[in-house]
Amino acid sequence: KERAEHVMLVDLARNDVGRVAEFGTVKVDELMTLERYSHVMHLTSQVSGRLRDGLGPIDVLRATLPAGTVSGAPKVRAMEIIDSLEPVKRGPYAGVVGYVDWSGNLDTAIAIRTMFVTGDGRTASLQAGAGIVADSVPDDEDLECRNKAAALLAAIPAARRMTAARRAADTRA
């Protein structure tokens, strides 16, 4: 399931990049590299192309967002389904975080796991998701989401320790 889903998404990324790249320059630089993290593993690929003259970073963002990895395919219909099924807006979850430097270079990452903590630090809201396809097993997808959220939950005690240490240092100063 994961390989078939990944190949479909790489193809979608090639199509998105092709909307702003010079003809014949779109390529898959890296295909299905396994990356290991504390609570999950991810298949990753990299698609690139040479930007057509007259286009810039904002054109790239317009052509490629939302990423197929968080919208699905076909992209427009998948987004319509998401909008009809999800009771609240996603906020920054599944959006992009990044920068454009003075030379016009763009570097972004998709916010696929997010945590928001209230100002008083007493409440945290987590978001994590999984790719759903025709042969998805609901219990497996639920476990995947729980594993992804576990990494965020593990960060909470560390953040509390750092905050306490900073406050203690401020008190001594």
Question: What's the SSE blueprint?
Answer:
Blueprint: H1 2-18, E1 27-36, E2 41-48, H2 57-64, H3 68-71, H4 75-85, E3 96-100, E4 106-110, E5 113-117, E6 124-128, H5 138-172
Antiparallel strand pairs: 1-2, 3-4, 5-6
Q: Can you give a write-up of this model?
A:
This protein is α+β, with helices and mostly antiparallel strands and 173 residues long. 43% of the residues lie in helices and 22% in strands. It contains five helices and six strands. A hairpin with a 6-residue loop joins strand 5 and strand 6. The longest helix has 35 residues. It starts with a helix and ends with a helix. The mean pLDDT is 90.
Any idea what the CATH architecture is?
4-Layer Sandwich
Measured as a percent range, the helix fraction is 40-55%
Q: Give the class-level CATH name.
A: Alpha Beta
The name of the CATH topology is: Anthranilate synthase
Summarize this structure as a short list of keywords or feature phrases.
173 residues; two-stranded antiparallel ribbon; 5 helices; alpha+beta; 6 strands; Anthranilate synthase
